[in-house]
User: What shape does this take?
Amino acid sequence: MAISVPSCQRRLLQAAMIGVLLSGCAQNPTAVDAKGVGGKTSEALAKVTTKVIGGPLIPDTTVHLGPSVSYPLEKLVYWGIWVGAAYLILDPLAPNWDIEEARLPENHVHFQMSMKRYYTGGAGEARVVFNRRARTLMREGGYSGYEIVEYSEALDSSVLGSKRTAEGVIRLTKSAG
Assistant: This one.
């Protein structure tokens, strides 16, 4: 159930590409008239873009949504890209918790759980997720119950924000008979 590293890298690459696209949506209503290397580069880029594409990337049109409501197409595309980037980063449909489990001797199972760094709820559900997974293992393995041997929760801090973690060990039990 854990997210693989290539998946995380792919999501970061997608977010970076969206950032590049957003930077391309910036417009300069006046002619480029800057001095120095930056100005010459901007000017050259503007000329190449016009020659290759044949004009601006987004046409200068207005979308009329009603008799009194209209928006420039550039703003709709710009905000659509921002919404797409936010969706990629937050991913509201992904599970909040990743669970890694390891089988130990004598019917013991160790769980290591970590929550998404950016989430939209579910911060207090670690114990519920832990118990749900333990019950699932119990039913799938034909056991009659389980005991929680140890359980702990923590908050790991980093530069990008804190991340909730939880870990525990259960012992799966069979009924005598």
User: Anything to note?
Assistant: Residues 97-173 form one domain. The chain has two domains: 5-90, 97-173. Residues 5-24 form the longest helix (20 residues).
